[in-house]
Amino acid sequence: MLIIADNRIPLQAKENLLKHGEVVWLETSNITEESVSGHPDIFFCRSNKNLIVAPNLPEAYKKILTKNEIRFVEGSRIVSTGYPAAAVYNAVITDKYLIHKTDITDKIILNDCEDLQQIHVMQGFTRCSLLSLKDGHFITSDTGISKSLVAKGLKGLLVSPDDIILPGHSHGFFGGVCGVIDDKIFMIGNLVFYSDAEKVKTFVSMLGYKVIELYDGPLFDGGSILFL
Hints:
By secondary structure, the chain is of the alpha/beta class.
């Protein structure tokens, strides 16, 4: 299994993540804002059919994907600084839905997901803010996203972003803390430092997930952890 994660997550989290697979540490320069320049959810979007990557993802990472026989297609728009240029691949895709601010979504993603129902939200950094779980359940730290999903009959947990670290910003986002593989939710941080810890534990336990806390510190928004 190949794992893609921001090279700047805390050292203990890096060491523990290495126990679960081969990790590709993502870092870029002079492409987008420094605070999100290593975030997987800025450069990658996984649909039900393809792994879609920003065309200006550094070539070294494309070569790693090819070497590991991971099929990918390039999107149509480069990632750049500012909004929405940094958010065009930051969509959430489930077996039924494409969830994003769909007026900024890269057209390759839209074409790839033409058989899915679109849920338009106002938060362009959707994957940063939203963790999609099984059977139409989700956790989000964005009020607007929560309202949109509940209106579609999905079952969600709204949590606070206030205790989540994202260097350079007042706070991070819950989705960016996490990665999901099978019945495991990996979190960059320890829930003991999080004000909504008990709500999260109860919710994910109800769904049968096991939480793996990667380091003993506050929740850290690393732009999600991508498992391939």
